[in-house]
């Protein structure tokens, strides 16, 4: 009997140890999930704060440069390996973009000049007219560079653009009452008459197909 009791206690102890290990593994898994969720939330907040992206942005749609900026902003709080997995960027790509970001900006003076020009001209000039102004000032720079710099600084004309002309002005006649109400049954000939209007956009014609019921 004592041996049976010892065996039973030993089995129970083994089951309890297995249950404890399972619960500890579950706790570790939950902590890991909470860690990942917090990291995702911080990444989205930084994307809205630094890159000026919508909080619901898909991280896959970010450029490698933007992903690198996010990783640099959070690398003190999270490990680089975890951040690389979350933002979907390769380690070599990150270090390449990081090296470029650390280099001095050769367009720093031009950025400031374009920024001043844009607001001196009351925010009415786009990149083409800004490029023309720079050309008149004997500043030789590509139009694509001006466009990229203005895009990066968010220099966009706030005025409403002119809408494309559209001749449609809505219905000019009152709606015809629906007398048939999709009931096309006729008890006698020539009782119900209706037309099917076909609009030919290429020839500008309206064709009426008459049916008698």
Provide structural commentary:
With 213 residues, this protein is mainly alpha-helical. Among the domains are: 20-102, no CATH class; 108-153. It is built from seven helices and two strands, in the order αααααααββ. It has a two-stranded antiparallel sheet with strand order 1-2. Helix 1 packs across helix 3, helix 2 (64-74) packs antiparallel against helix 3 (80-87) and helix 6 packs across helix 7. The termini are far apart. The model is unreliable at 200-213 (pLDDT under 50).
Summarize the structure.
The protein is mainly α and 213 residues long. 53% of the residues lie in helices and 8% in strands.
Major beta sheet, strand line-up: 1-2
Number of strands: 2
Low-confidence stretches: 200-213
Q: Could you give a short account of the major beta sheet?
A: 2 strands, antiparallel
Percent in helix: 40-55%
User: What is the average of the pLDDT values?
Assistant: 80
Question: What fraction of the residues are assigned to beta strands by DSSP?
Answer: 5-15%
C-alpha end-to-end distance: 100 Å
- Oligomer category: single chain
Tally of individual helices = 7
Any idea what the shape is? Answer: flat
